[in-house]
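Hey, can you fold this one?
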Amino acid sequence: MHPVDDRALTDLRTSVGGTVLQEGDEEFDDALEKAVWNGDIHRRPALVVEAISARDVATVIAFAREHRLDLTVRGGGHSFAGHAVSEGGLMLDLGPLDRVDVDPRARRARVGGGARWSDLDAAAAAHGLAVTGGFVSHTGVGGLTLGGGMGWLTRRCGLTCDSLVSAQVVTADGRTVTASADSEPDLFWALRGGGGNFGVVTSFEFALHEVDQLANVGLFFWAPQDAREPLRAAARVIPALPREYGAFIGGLTTPPAPFVPVERQGTTAFVVGVIGWGAPHEHAEVVAPIQELAPAFELVTSMPYSALQQMFDDTAPWRIKGYEKALWLDELSDPVIDVVLDFLPRKTSPLSFMPIFALGGAFADVPDEATSFSGSRRSLWALNIAAVAEDAGMLAVDRDWVQRFWAALQPYARGVGSYVNFIADEDEARVRASYGEAKYARLSAIKARWDPDNVFHHNANIRPTPAAQAAATLA
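Sure. Predicted structure:
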């Protein structure tokens, strides 16, 4: 960190409405403990500054640039990569900007850049509305949206970023601009999948969707030795589901939940999940082809959508240690299933897991070029492999498991690219591969316009192109 004198810090404290903390302050360690979800991240910034307004954000950006401080931005802090903190830098914390306002008549929501999905889910559900959110409710709205955003509603409503109507952005030079289809359309395009590369989003406006707040849930479990035919069946059945249905396939350790037989608790299993809305008997008809494959046990029930959104919260407790890698698949072929059956039982930590997210439906309605999202809209599956553990030794073992598992799946994947929200390593080549050359070139040119000095580089980073090249690309 470049030294900052006491007078400058005093001026900063009087210039922003939020709290300013530095190393040595009584509340500093507590602020860092709450800063990032991944307990394997140990970087310590020198300053933590809360923002309560867009003006505060602009002030902090200017301060960081003037004093040559490495700037990071914290929305929800829930990522494997831990981009919210850097060693010796300045962390801009958007946590206080968590207000959610819903206009039920217009079916719109304005959401602060520090809000979490539980905030938005609850506010929208009160009016029978929703937008595609994550699978863990304490995930930040900002990070998920800017990277794309997948959840239970992906096949029904598309990605989170597909429902983004506008965004208020504080830029690297301190301006506050509105990005939408009609205002700064290039920036708006870049924000829908390009991550936090282009500025600090202090407010999102979403189009909301009518969603029955009682979801029908079907979860069906098999031991690995019995899972081959059920997985093959799921690979056929899920893509053919009506788009109103959400689905996923998972590899996990079974929890000590009431619906899990005692003798099955704590064992490795595969699960096929199908979520629907409407009449329970319609859901029963849809899941029948999977249910007929003799699962070891199952959970078929109805629950509030907000509870569905929190179903996996206990699998991702705050400050657990984690690492992940992911890839895109056009099909769950027999060779892919062979690899999955081989590798899942090799995991060591009971918290490590492998979710496979079903795409298609509304996700595929949007042309690839319409947003900057890092995946092909033709892919049917996003496969993630996550090492999650309570101690560093077990994480190290399962980190190796993730990397070997991922390498074994590579021959069947759509290249080495990934959903950028699932890139835990700093890897410029994979970021480029994820977007593809054409998208990356356009993003890089937009980056050159809005952040030519790469102030916002703690992310799946897109480097700015030289000015002349950028102008030619955007012409």
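The longest helix spans residues 428-450. Let me know if you want another pass with a different chain boundary.
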